[in-house]
Amino acid sequence: MKERMKILQNEVDILQFESAEKDRDLVDIVQKKAKANAQRDKYRTESNREELKFRGKLSTIGQLINQGDKLNLIINSLQKEMNNLIYEYEHACESRNYMGIQLIDRNDELCILYEKSNIQENILKNGEQKIREKEEQIRMIELELKERQRQFKVVDKQVPEVPKLAEKVLELEEELNSKKMEVQELSEKLEDPKKHPNAVDLPGEDPDEEALLAKIHVLEERLNNKKEALLEKELVYEEVSNLAEKLRTQALDGRKTTLEVAEKINEYKARRTELSRKMLATVSELSMFQSKTLKLQQEKEEKEAVLEQ
């Protein structure tokens, strides 16, 4: 019985030990369960929090999607604007290139206009020079015509004086011969003073070389003056002889001379008329050149205004 009791007691102890173990296990399980419940609540809270975050993220994603759609619209609009800007830029580049080509062409045209303007200015200057030359020719012809008319009047007045002029020619010839003889004698006397009738030997010393050269220079000047006077008289004689011959010829054939002078006068008048006509033509041509020059100047100013714009 005691053994049985011991066995039972041992079994009771074992059972108590097992019960204690079970209690400890139960406590552990309860604690673990409590921890698990706490962890579950924590996870549930975190899940709710995460769900709220997820919903917030979903809302944010929706907003971002809406913003993305808006941004896509903005991007599409910007893309269109960029395409338009690219098109406008390309068009502007083409316009710039075209304007560059136009600028080069206008510059070339401007250079050509400058060249034409210079040519027209040169033509204008040449035309003015020709007009001045023609006017000078007309003036000279008019002077020559007046001189011819004066000579004609003088000849017409001097025709009755031909005998007097012939006597004058003879007197001038005699005077010329006399002057020639006088010059010849003076030359011989200068060459050999001993031939002079009043030559006397002067006392004193002979002058030195410089004094002799000075005297020779004075005598040469006197001789040259005499020669010049003689030459003038010869020229006067020749002119008077020619004039007398002309007057004699004109006196013999006065009608013919009058006719020739009249023809010359008519010829000079015709030449003056022709020169006047040429001068008028030159003036007309000059006016045309001036008109062209003004037109080219106006075109040049217009081109410069276009280039400045």
Radius of gyration based on Cα positions: 70 Å
Strand content: under 5%
Q: What is the general shape? A: rod-shaped
- SSE pattern, N- to C-terminal: HHHH
Based on helices, strands and strand pairing, what is the structural class? mainly alpha
The end-to-end span amounts to 136 Å
Mean pLDDT: 70
The CATH class name of the domain at 121-191 and 213-308 reads Mainly Alpha
Count helical runs.
4
Strand tally is 0
**Helix fraction bin:** over 70%
> What is the CATH architecture assignment of the domain at 121-191 and 213-308?
Orthogonal Bundle
Low-confidence stretches: none
Major β-sheet profile: none
What does the oligomeric state look like here? Answer: single chain
Domain Cilia- and flagella-associated protein 58 central coiled coil: 1-151
Region (Disordered): 183-206
GO cellular component, one term: cytoskeleton
Biased composition (Basic and acidic residues): 183-195
Would you kindly provide a written description of the structure presented here, covering whatever features stand out?
The chain is mostly helical. The protein has a domain at 121-191 and 213-308: Helix Hairpins, CATH 1.10.287. It has four helices and no strands. The longest helix has 157 residues, at 2-158. It starts with a helix and ends with a helix. The model has no long low-confidence stretch (mean pLDDT 70).
